[in-house]
Amino acid sequence: MKIALTGILIVSLISLLYITISRRLGFAWLTRLGLHVVLAALGLYLVNFSGIATEAYIPLNPVTVTTVLVLGLPGVGLLLGLKLTMI
C-alpha cells in the first residue's frame, strides 16, 4: 500500500513539475490568487456585517476564506447554511 501511494506521489510531483516548466506560468497567477483571496474575504465580510443573517457570524479564518476561494459565492451560501443549521 505504501509503495502504491509513494508511486502516485512521485508521478503527480513529476507531472506538476512538467506542467510548471513547460507552460512558463510566471508570476501572473500570484496576482490572480491574491485578488481572489481579497474578494473571498470581502464576500464574507459583507455577509457578516450587512445584516442579511443577523444570527449567523462566519469568522474570517483561513478555512472559511479557502472554502469561498474554491467554491465562489455558493461557498458563502454553503457556510451560511452550515452555520444556521448547526446553531
UniProtKB/TrEMBL annotation:
<keyword id="KW-1133">Transmembrane helix</keyword>
<feature type="transmembrane region" description="Helical">
    <location>
        <begin position="33"/>
        <end position="54"/>
    </location>
</feature>
<protein>
    <submittedName>
        <fullName>Pro-sigmaK processing inhibitor BofA</fullName>
    </submittedName>
</protein>
<keyword id="KW-0472">Membrane</keyword>
<feature type="transmembrane region" description="Helical">
    <location>
        <begin position="6"/>
        <end position="21"/>
    </location>
</feature>
<dbReference type="InterPro" id="IPR010001">
    <property type="entry name" value="BofA"/>
</dbReference>
<keyword id="KW-0812">Transmembrane</keyword>
<feature type="transmembrane region" description="Helical">
    <location>
        <begin position="60"/>
        <end position="82"/>
    </location>
</feature>
<dbReference type="Pfam" id="PF07441">
    <property type="entry name" value="BofA"/>
</dbReference>
